[in-house]
Amino acid sequence: MQGKMMSQPLIVSSIMEHAERFHGSTEIVSRTVEGRVHRYTYAEAHKRAKQGANALQKLGVELGSRVATLAWNNHRHFELYYAISGMGAITHTVNPRLFPEQVSWIVNDAQDQVLCFDTSFASLVESIAPQCPSVKYWVAMTDRDHMPDVRVPNLICYEDLIASEPEEFTWPQLDENTASSLCYTSGTTGNPKGVLYSHRSTLLHALSSSNPDALNLSGQDVVLPVVPMFHVNAWGLPYSAPLAGAKLVLPCDGMDGASLYELFENEGVTFSAGVPTVWLGVLQHLRSNNLKLSSVKRMIVGGSACPPALMQSFRQEYNVRIQHAWGMTEMSPLGTVNTPKAKHRALTEEERFELEIKQGRPPFGVDLKIVDDHGNELPRDGKTSGDLLVRGHWVIDQYYNKEDSPLVDGWFPTGDVANLDADGYLQITDRSKDVIKSGGEWISSIELENIAMNHPAVAEAAALGMPHEKWDERPLLVVVKKEGLDVSSEEILAKYQGQVAKFCIPDDVVYVDEIPHTATGKVSKITLRKMLTDYRWPAPKNSGQ
Ligand code: AMP
Q1: Which of 274, 275, 430, 510 has the fewest CB atoms lying closer than 10 Å?
Q2: Which atom of ligand 1 approaches the CA of 431 most closely?
Q3: If you take atom 6 of ligand 1, which residue's CA is the nearest one?
């Protein structure tokens, strides 16, 4: 027997319909590439999204067409999210930080029909246009006065494009499994792979991620996503903020400490989200200018492991709660968020901190398990590490344009190594390819990095397994010192005594001016290894194994 309830498809356009009707006067504030701060409301954004849909239709965009964006977090990008997906086409967010050859490869793989770009990327667009024959129109996301001098066929000004279009558009009641957006993984090895989200997966992700034990968003929040809209849909915030009725603040290309601080204070931001390097920049700005945060209450940190020292500094010096979260492009991206349970009220401060530095527990909709090399499930004891597998409503089933299934017995192998405890708290100990394998033992590079970053003179640290005659690999620590501070290797290595087993202590420390990062803000261990190809261990080491 079927239930007798309405069956409404879970589609992206329903979010904006809700936001316009029930949060119509709530603001979206956006920095722009033209330099000014733009403000309008959800009601106005919805109208412009409809104008955008009418305009795209005239350009031949239809159900299933791919429309690419090369853009920062700003109001025009937000409108395009809804204009493109709402009409049944696919919003393909391309990461402009990738090399031009990777960008054109991705555009060709997706066969994008229209490409909308912020004018900051005009020269990138000009260089890739000849290699991208599928793109019929290049739309500069600006007004007539700021049109770039860029030689591409069929260049259109975004504001001109939508200006004369009607503010009415009836969003199609799509099948909820229709594709809504496309995002390529950063592709540090081989070519990038496309992850094709559906309206249903996006809606369920937005609903679940705004719950109290996830991002905890409400109509009282002012949300500033620092995580780019070209990186896993800014962790879903352009969907979950309007769904919750939160005010949205978009930083455009101003992701440095000073620009973010200005927006935090001027707009009363309560909640923000980004990768650890962003928060390190904010912390530095706050400290060196002796500033306080008056409205920010919570920050979500994910994308790579949050150094515990960063979490502690924000808590103790600025009364801001940093919540650790873990996810990946293939998971839309939310996998876990760190929130306590009622039973944790009894913990001491130290015990609570031990829990908080973990990556958190999954909301309903995500299932996790860890397995050994033979696929056998490992105990959830908070100690045993294994390969992390996931499944759920917003987890990938198949990559775009690929025949093979990435799944193993219905589970997606994340490539991360982790432990799980009996309460479902996940602790990522490594990417499987970054684990340091020394004399048959596994050493967590993340653990080594966290200890080093706890030293007051260390700005950033990365641990690598370097080839070793006797032990196969031994840990090498690469350190960037804080400006104006000095520290010896002995002093840094002394930090490890009593914190890790003796065999885990790095054998040597190398100092560099900068640690390379990938296009999504993670430490690029591949580039780091290339930088260290001439490295040799100083002398035979007594590693303690
Ligand atoms: P991406 O698909 O670019 O978002 O990268 C996903 C990968 O980033 C994951 O598989 C992890 O290796 C890493 N990652 C994301 N969040 C965290 C975190 N909180 N701690 C450690 N690694 C993380």
Answers
A1: 510
A2: 12
A3: 328
User: Order of strands, edge to edge, in the sheet holding 458-468?
Assistant: 458-468, 472-481, 508-511
Task: Write down all domains in the chain, each with its CATH number in brackets.
Answer: 9-26+40-207 (3.40.50.12780), 434-531 (3.30.300.30)
- Contact of 478 with 507, CB cutoff 8 Å: no
The backbone torsions φ and ψ at residue 249, rounded to the nearest 5 degrees and listed phi first, read -120, 120
Atom number in ligand 1 closest to CA 428: 21
Angstrom distance (rounded) from CA 214 to CA 326: 11
Residues written for the chain: 545
Report pLDDT digits (tens) over 222-260. Answer: 999 999 999 999 999 999 999 999 999 999 999 999 999
Which residue, among 518, 402, 400, has the nearest Cα to 92 in the 3D structure?
400
Distance between Cα 303 and ligand 1 center (Å): 4
| pLDDT for the residue numbered 526 | 86
The CA 327 to ligand 1 mean position distance, Å, reads 6
What is the per-residue pLDDT for 188? Answer: 53
How far is the C-alpha of 132 from the C-alpha of 55, rounded, in Å? 22
Residue with tokens 């733009």: 38
Task: Please state, in angstroms and rounded to a whole number, the distance separating the CA atoms of residues 486 and 482.
Answer: 8
Q: Which of 517, 532, 530 is nearest to 186 (CA)?
A: 517
Q: Which active-site residues does the annotation give?
A: 185, 330, 437, 442
Residue 273's SS3 state is strand
Checking if the pLDDT of 543 tops 80, the result is no
Q: How far is the CA of 326 from the centre of ligand 1 (A)?
A: 6
